[in-house]
Protein: Aspartate carbamoyltransferase
Amino acid sequence: MKRHLISAADLTRDDALLVLDTAEEMARVADRPIKKLPTLRGRTVVNLFFEDSTRTRISFEAAAKRLSADVINFSAKGSSVSKGESLKDTALTLEAMGADAVVIRHHSSGAPHRLAGSGWINASVVNAGDGTHEHPTQALLDALTMRRHLSAPGRDLAGRRITIVGDVLHSRVARSNVLLLTTLGAEVTLVAPPTLLPIGVEQWPCTVSYDLDAVLTTSDAVMMLRVQRERMNAAFFPTEREYARRYGLDGLRMAALPEHAIVMHPGPMNRGMEITAEVADSPRCTAVEQVANGVSTRMAVLYLLLGGSEPALAGARPEPAAAEPATVSAAGSDPTEPARPAGAPNATAARTEESK
Ligand code: CP
Structure:
């Protein structure tokens, strides 16, 4: 893995599989009475949010805390940013606090890239959504969700047909998903009105359609995108009713999907716009599952970026048993089983070392 995670394009197929496999290991922590590992004890993770968030912010905080990191939550609202403080001076302040990882969400595309390459901080930078550019950890948690429903542990998404529908123009989720899903072997189709497709989309590694009904019957997953009214400074479609009629997912359209297909939404949802309440609340909709997968995915990302060179659950017993001598257990095995000695890394550890 690279030191920073700015774009889904930063991940090779092996990197992406490593994150997903590690996330599966991390997910097992969530099933325990004590959902905590000592892995990042003594490390500091700063959540630097210049733009509103519910899911991403909470899940990064939960992820860092479950790994026993110290967590500093910074929100631009109520900070010295409102007095005109620059990103540079904010970054220098974080550096002085000893940040090991900075998770940044920013309204400007490119802000995480700037922070990572600035030399202002030594921390690993994780892009938690920048403008209309990228949201790589969202794509990773979406891939984890798809893999659970459509593939198998340890495998990629080769041959799976994923349809992404709606406001692609303003969607960092769509961009990161197209990049990651194609890295994992999936075939991606974007469906949107021409006004909500970015210039240059024909260069993206995917197919484009304007007809949702034409692609539903061959889709393994349909990902509905939020119509981002707050980023719209012009009329991109005649009326909301017209948009919902042509590009919204309702019960009738959901019934046209293959039986195994899932409906995804990164949230927050505009119920009645891109998705009806009937679909959002149906068992086929994975929106809540995606949020849960976000915690284990972000645990995996923080663990790997902050130097995880052993299986995530090495010697894995929840606190307070963490003080026992470090041992290495087989990846994918029950962490309460007898552990192999340190120095006998399993496949996950080996792959981590290789890809550094
Ligand atoms: N999916 C997503 O990024 O949601 P939040 O804006 O609530 O973080």
About this structure: The chain is about 35% helix and 15% strand. The longest helix spans residues 287-305. The radius of gyration is 20 Å.
